[in-house]
């Protein structure tokens, strides 16, 4: 498994600064050609992305997540900025699109959807044997993805005000035409035909703009789970990765045993995702077992129970239990940001505190 994290670049006052190209050049990074383990640009000049190497051990992955954050900060230091794990900027901003033809084309075609995409996510890649296994996983993980969103929520503020959402990033991201849950595909041929059909509509630039909640990675032999905010605390990113791997492994085992995928209702999946983004861990979620509201603590417990065997076999159960305890104690990124703002009344101070936790 591997983790990609996107970070905001902010100045001394906490406002986003368009210095990604300068930071990458100053630190000797050449961009996406370098692959895993490197710093990379994102859609906006106010962002940097890191990626771990593929890891099988959770402790090693946890260290790589922290190392990636440190690399991002070293690059930011070279241009007088700071790298912070916030999924949206609490402070008002005007985003600056990276000067690459593909990104500039997207900005022109998608208008305000592209101009406002200063959002930072966390993507988890989990290896699969082949496309057959990958599609079998995609057809089974959907009901549980909203729970991962809830665990990661870290974007309550947008353009200087409280949105009342725990993850407003998820609302901004949902504007893209290919984002969100998918129907069951059944076979790799059906999956790839669906991707090709989307490209052939002429509405998106290429297959890399197929932004399903979970997809077969165009770059790696993995299932890529894309629903999470970038996590404020590196421990939460580690937790997210462990649960994502547990979900993929549990789904792959169910397929190998001949168990059919659960009934898929994209309208319910979309509503569950909205509910997770709205209240995060602070209220009720939609239970994937009943499709009825239940307390967040109970629904997270249902997820852990669902993937328990896979966590035990990977040696991750104890770590997941510990990391979940820490997450419940803080309430998660959205709750922490709101608590900091309640103390200070200053969104600039919220960003300062977030920088500290990012690199804890």
From TrEMBL:
NCBIfam families in the cross-refs: gshA_cyan_rel, PRK13517.1-1
A Pfam family that the UniProt record links to this protein: GCS2
EC top class named in words: ligase
UniProt EC number: 6.3.2.2
GO MF assignments: ATP binding; glutamate-cysteine ligase activity
Keywords per UniProt: ATP-binding, Ligase, Nucleotide-binding
Function in brief: ATP-dependent carboxylate-amine ligase which exhibits weak glutamate--cysteine ligase activity.
Name of the protein: Putative glutamate--cysteine ligase 2
Domain of life: Bacteria
UniProt-listed GO biological process terms: modified amino acid biosynthetic process
């Amino acid at each position: 498994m591997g983790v990609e994290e996107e970070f905001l670049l902010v100045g001394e006052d906490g406002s986003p600064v368009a210095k990604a190209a300068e930071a990458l050049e100053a630190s000797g990074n050449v961009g996406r050609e370098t692959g895993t383990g490197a710093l990379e640009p994102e859609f906006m000049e106010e962002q940097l992305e890191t990626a771990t190497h593929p890891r099988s051990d959770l402790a090693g992955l946890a260290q790589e997540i922290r190392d990636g954050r440190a690399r991002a900060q070293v690059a930011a230091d070279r241009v007088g900025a700071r790298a912070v794990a916030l999924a949206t900027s609490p402070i008002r901003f005007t985003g600056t699109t990276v000067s690459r033809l593909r990104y500039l084309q997207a900005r022109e075609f998608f208008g305000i959807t592209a101009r406002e995409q200063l959002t930072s996510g966390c993507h988890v890649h989990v290896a699969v044997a082949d496309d057959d296994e990958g599609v079998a996983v995609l057809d089974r993980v959907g009901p549980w993805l909203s729970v991962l969103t809830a665990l990661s929520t870290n974007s309550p503020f947008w353009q200087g005000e409280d949105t009342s959402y725990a993850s407003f990033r998820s609302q901004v991201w949902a504007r893209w035409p290919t984002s969100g849950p998918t129907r069951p595909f059944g076979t790799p041929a059906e999956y790839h035909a669906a991707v090709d059909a989307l490209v052939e509509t002429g509405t998106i630039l290429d297959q890399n703009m197929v932004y399903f909640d979970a997809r077969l990675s165009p770059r790696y032999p993995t299932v890529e789970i894309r629903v999470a905010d970038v996590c404020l605390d590196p421990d939460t990113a580690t937790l997210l990765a462990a649960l994502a791997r547990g979900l993929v492994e549990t789904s792959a085992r169910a397929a190998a045993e001949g168990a059919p995928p659960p009934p898929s209702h994209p309208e319910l999946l979309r509503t569950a995702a909205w509910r997770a983004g709205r209240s995060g861990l602070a209220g009720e979620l939609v239970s994937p077992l009943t499709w009825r509201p239940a307390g967040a603590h109970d629904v997270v417990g249902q997820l852990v129970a669902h993937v328990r065997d896979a966590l035990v076999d990977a040696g991750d159960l104890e770590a997941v239990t510990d990391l979940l305890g820490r997450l419940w104690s803080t309430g998660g990124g959205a709750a922490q940001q709101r608590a900091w703002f309640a103390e200070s009344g200053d969104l600039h101070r919220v960003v300062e505190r977030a920088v500290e936790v990012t690199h804890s």
